Amino acid sequence: MKREVLLYLKNNPHEYVSGEQLSTLFGVSRTAIWKVINELKREGYIIESSSKKGYRLSPDSDVLNSFEISEELKTKVLGRNIIYFDQIDSTNNYAKRIALEGCEEGTLIVADCQTSGRGRLGRDWNSANKKGIWMSLVLRPDIPFEEVQMLTLAASVAVVQALYEVAEIKAGIKWPNDIIINGKKVCGILVEMNMEIESINFLVLGIGVNVNQQKEDFSEELSDKATSLKMHLEELGIQKILKRTQLIAAILLKFEAIYDKVKCGDFGYIISEWKKHSVTLGREVSIIYKDRQYRGIAQDITKDGKLIVKCEDGTVKEVFSGEVSVRGLLGY
Ligand code: BTX
After folding, report:
1. 3-state DSSP call for residue 61?
2. Are residues 190 and 227 in the same domain?
């Protein structure tokens, strides 16, 4: 009955509905309705209550769960199976576990909070409770190993497009996997792979987006280099409630269209969109690989997504994301 009450409140967003009306409608006592309302509030729904008028669901509620996500989703395959956690170590870890057990393509793992969110090369990813999108998709594309890099690029393009569509936010892509706003990281992408000898068994695409953090939500170390969508909008003087479910749905829809292209080996659109939003090309970069470091200018990307760097000694290197850390020398 909880879902029915919720749907009723959602479908009547402008009116207060009295406890009596709800109890008649659903054939239960007013106490039962009161309990349901309290449960919904505990789940994070903002329900305005007035003893005279009744209950009204605030459109500002930013609740993450499978039901809310599927209400927003317009995809065909991605996110059709959703597994939600209020807290988990890492959605990528969980996705890898269930992928090994054979879960279906497009399964989405999403959490309000990660206790051991991971970035690349063993780095941590700060995943504060209810402040961002921490999600992973299980993908089973029939593509050669060399094309996996395209998925990171494809996901970056999808995130940038979705941020613009939902909130008119113009973000840039720093090769290989960061989404940047005004020189600060707002989103990171982590693609992990499981391979057989010849072919890819599955991929896990992890996406972390900072949505509602304030400056004080980031550690001192991060506060100089991280931002959130909310912080960015506030800097622009825009007060906008960002709903994580809406952003997730937009990212998945954009990604699904681009992912279909990756599966067909059609990379032209991805490369051109990636270049349009790149904050790396034409900039001086520092490539750190094991104990070596090169400097050079990021000139272009190859048609399978490697970064082409003209080094200071005149040599040209093609850099594959798994091996390096790239730092813009003059900020982003
Ligand atoms: P990365 O290795 O490029 O970035 C990690 C670095 O980014 C950290 O060392 C730190 O300096 C900085 N950082 C950490 N947390 C944040 C944050 N919230 N915002 C901005 N900067 C931060 C990027 O790796 C890939 C991140 C993927 C995260 C997703 S969340 C869902 C999925 N599950 C999981 O464990 N990881 C992925």
Report:
1. coil
2. yes
